[in-house]
Structures are given as C-alpha cells and as structure tokens.
Amino acid sequence: MSETPTTRPGEIAGRPKLVLRYRSDPARIADLLPPGMDPWGEPIVQIGIYCVPVLGEPEYGVSTKVPARWRGIDGQYNLGIGIDQEAAIFGSREVNGQPKFPCSIRYFRLGDGIHASCTHQGHTFLDYDGTVSGAPEPDGVEVEENEWWIKVSRAVGGTEGAYDFPPHVVRVRTAGVVTHVETLDGELRLHDSPWDPYTSLLPVTGGATAELVTTRHTAREITLDEPLDPDAFWAHVDTIGGSRWPGSRGGPRS
Asked: What CA–CA distances, in Å, run from 209 to 78, 114, 137, 213, 251?
C-alpha cells in the first residue's frame, strides 16, 4: 500500500517560518517608532525568515518587527522586509507602503539542523545555526495579529517638509491557526552593518529564542488607516533604502 508523502519531491516554497526573538533596549525601540505609535509589552524584537510562493516562484524573505500600539490596538511596527525578488519590491512599497528592500537570503534545514543568513549591500548582517530541540507542539492554536506599515510620498522636487501624499498608517490584520511549532537550540549572530543597523539601533540585551512555525492563514486584510502628524513625521521620512531604518538620502547615516 502506497503512502502519501508529507511534502512533494523537490518542493521548496511553503516551509515553516524561522522565528527569532531577542530582548532589546526599550528606549531604542521607542526611538524608532513614528510619532503617534507607542511601545507596549516586552521590548522583544521579532525576526522572521521565510520562503513563500510569490509571483509564481519561491520568495525568500526576512522581516523585522517591534511592538507598537496604534490608536489603542497592540501590534507590531515593521522596520524592514528584505526579499530576493526585485519584481515584488517596488509595487508593494508604492501600493501598500511595505518596507521592502533587496536582500540575499539562505535558509535551509538538513535533518534537525537549521541554517539561515541574510546579506544586504555586501554585508551579512545576520546568521543563525541551530538544531531542533523540542517535539512539535499540539496544533490548532488560533492567532490574530496586527502589523503596521507606513505609506508616504515626499513632494516632487524635494521641498523640505512637503508631501504629495502625507504619511498614513497601513494596518495589516492577519488571522490563522498555528499547525506546527518546533523549538530550536542555537545561536543568533547579529553583525555590524551600516545598511541594517541592528547592533547599533536594536542591540541585544537578553537571550535569543528560535522556533519553526507553520501557520494556516484564514484571513489577511490590508487597509489604509489614519494619518500621522506630517510635521512630526518629517524626522522619520528619510530611510535606508526601502526599509524604515533611519537614513540619509536613502543610505546609511554617517
């Protein structure tokens, strides 16, 4: 009697997300939030490394979030989504304000070993090596999350303090069921990089944790929310590339 395999031979996209978390300085998190958002809960930075099907092919990505409350709703402010598909970067930023930028990502599992690394502008700013240490937890846990992006466009010609489209929050509400979780033992290494300044702007102050998480999503809504104070936001408008890391003329601050 034949058996149905759990994955198809050669399948790449759809593997579990590698979720890395570490404690940082709450004051540093607050500094990165736009005016109108406030930190909440524990000062935990969450980095997700994933491979999902986008535009008919696997997309490798790395997403960095910090806890942020907006209009009384607890959620996470996304500082950057590095992906390896150029086609999905610019339209996503223009339409929805997604903070995407080009990034080279390696992410794979061999047996119980997990490896991931992320490289941007020639700098490998993150790598992780670990092994599965915990059996899969019971499935069926329902989750609902809110994520905040910023949609904004400065005025043509670059007039100081002027916008063609003033800053608005974009709310991303997702719901789903966690179907699989495995805990990992390993080491998260964040490296100095001017283009991805984790070590200077979100330094590690506590131990890191790692999990492999599979979620079956049941809902995803992307909606334009309320505007931010345009004058107060001007200090946050210049970023490193397409991310929300503070920058200077699109590059790192000196």
From this structure: 19, 13, 16, 13, 31
For the ranges 118-122, 127-131, 140-144, which has the lowest average pLDDT?
A: 140-144
The tokens of 46 are what?
């969450």
Q: Give the CATH architecture of domain 17-252.
A: Beta Barrel (2.40)
Give the containing element (helix H, strand E) for 209. Answer: strand 208-227
Q: Quick one: CA torsion of 203, 204, 205, 209, rounded to 10 degrees? A: 150
- The one-character DSSP state at 239 is B
Cα–Cα distance, 160 to 28 (Å, whole number): 26
Average pLDDT over residues 80-100: 96
Q: For residues 53, 55, 106 and 12, what is the CA-based torsion angle, rounded to 10 degrees?
A: 40
Q: Give the pair of three-digit tokens for residue 209.
A: 């944790």
Q: Full-prediction pTM beyond 0.90?
A: yes
Cα–Cα distance for residue pair 172/63, rounded to 1 Å: 14
